[in-house]
Every structure is written in C-alpha cells, then in structure tokens.
Design goal:
10 strands, single chain, 149 residues, 4 helices, Immunoglobulin-like, four-stranded antiparallel sheet, four-stranded mixed sheet, 27% helix, alpha+beta
C-alpha cells in the first residue's frame, strides 16, 4: 500500500474515533425531585439495536426492567453498553463526573442515555453524544441536559 493512502486511511480512522471521556457537570436544585433523592443511571450505548430499544423507555420503565435488560445483554461481547449509577440528594454538591469511554467508533455509538427516577410523571430520560461535555440540571419536577460551557 502506498504511504499516502495508508496515511489517509489512518487519518479517516482517527477522525471517527473517541477514546476519551464523557464529561458531566451536575447541578441539583434545593427541591429537586420534590425534595427526595434521585437515582440516576447513565448508559453509554455501543450498539444501535440496543439503543433503539432503550430510547423508547421512560425512566420508570428503565428502572423496572433494568435487571432483566442487563441480564439479557450480559452475553454480548463486546458489551453493548456501559452503566454508571448514582443517587443524589437535593442541593448536593457533586464533583464533575468524568466517565471514561472504551475506544469506540462514533458511527457505531449512538450515544449516552440518562435516566432519572423522579417521583413526578414524565419520561425523565435524556440523550447526549458519548464524546461530549454536558451540564445536567436536576430540577424539582424533571431534569435537563445542555452543552457545558
């Protein structure tokens, strides 16, 4: 293979790869979740079919089905997703979360889903790119994800 073609293929490959982190700043309001703790799951999804299945779930459905979904996916090699879990209380000061990502090809990674177990009705689900820096604002009735500044 000619050196210029090899270099071009290498550059194309590097442009689509992410081997870094998902950076997440967390803000929690004083009366978040009606002044109750919030269970939060972040899923970095590496499989498009799994992503399409999960994006349709509400947080309530995710938390009810989580154990079975993880069991069903446990035989995937490489894993279809990575799960991080937290439980935060209203007004808690949370240090920035830096979630390491396994080396992935962006075109093969739909992204990350965040589910928050709120008491109020609603989907309580959000999406972000896997290689992103975001701020997550947990409010009284719901949460929002926005690009970090």
């Amino acid at each position: 293979m000619r050196p210029t073609l090899l270099l071009l293929l290498l550059l194309i490959g590097l442009a689509g790869c992410c081997s870094g982190t998902l950076n997440m700043k967390v803000n929690i309001a004083e009366k978040a979740n009606q002044n109750s703790p919030i269970a939060v799951d972040l899923l970095v999804v590496y499989d498009e079919d799994v992503f399409q299945e999960l994006i349709g779930l509400t947080a309530k459905e995710w938390f009810a089905k989580r154990a079975q979904i993880l069991k069903d996916l446990s035989s995937n090699d490489p894993p279809a997703l990575e799960l991080r879990q937290w439980e935060w209380i209203p007004a808690q000061q949370v240090s920035p979360q830096m979630i390491p990502l396994r080396k992935l090809i962006l075109s093969q990674s739909p992204g990350a889903l965040i589910f928050a177990d709120y008491q109020s009705p609603g989907d309580h689900r959000a999406f972000t790119q896997a290689c992103a820096s975001v701020t997550v604002d947990f409010q009284e009735e719901d949460f929002a994800v926005r690009p970090a500044k």
